[in-house]
Amino acid sequence: MPFPFRLLCDLLERLERNARRSSSTDRIQERDTLTILAWFNEHDTIIPRRGPETVAFLSCLFPERRPDRVFDFASSVERVMAITDSESGAGREITLEELDDTLDQTAASSSFSSASLRERVTTKHGRSIRADNSLLKVFRVLQSSKTKWMIRIISKNYSPARVPETLVMSKFHFLLPDLLRFQNSIPAAIGLLGNPTIRHMPIQPAVDTCDELKEVASRELEPQAGIMTAPGPRRMSVERKYDGEYCQIHIDLNKSGAAIKIFSKSGRDSTSDRIGIH
């Protein structure tokens, strides 16, 4: 079932109110926790946990976790708002899956977005698609309060609202925080949740069974070439860096030719940017 964008906006509005009503960090965190728990309890039956809708759900909750998307937003908004300033925003419901597809199309117009994202959008929509047209369709039906959150999603910054990452991920699925530490990609983590063994586990198991289930799940996990991995508890080599920047390099030994992927520290696919070192 498509998840309505307005429900995410409702959550973010509540979190923003929490931040504005208190100057105490502890008090804000306490209110945020109650807000998150109440929101998940209210909408748990329609929260997608499989398929493209799931990727859209988590990508919109945590836009900063999509380093593969880079938006040339200022110029797009300038063109879009010139057309829509005088038009009404009343109309149909926008779903997170539709919004997520629009974000993909917008990001695909930037050469700094990952090559895999741009290829995926081209395969789905063709090379003639214009990101401005997709944004225009969304902005035309959004009311101003929803437009605010649309802009903040594109900016990957919900400030002053704060989405408690660990709590929200744990409420979504008890394994999600660990899966993202293992494979630092929302689409990849959703793919792991689709593993037959993991799929049959309860979303929120009894506390005394969590460690055992995590142990069972860990036996099903294998790193994938081409998807950035988190270091986890492994021993790492650390050295002083005087210039340049760190990167993570994947070499798929099962492929010939273009089998190298390079990830920047943020997790963005920077293979094209670093063409000189491969």
TrEMBL record:
InterPro entries the UniProt entry points to: DNA_ligase_N_sf, LIG4
Gene Ontology terms for molecular function: ATP binding; DNA binding; DNA ligase (ATP) activity
UniProt entry keywords in alphabetical sequence: Ligase
Biological process according to GO: DNA recombination; double-strand break repair via nonhomologous end joining; nucleotide-excision repair, DNA gap filling
Keyword Metal-binding attributed: no
Keyword Ligase part of the UniProt annotation: yes
GO cellular component: DNA ligase IV complex
Protein name: DNA ligase ATP-dependent N-terminal domain-containing protein
Organism: Dactylonectria macrodidyma
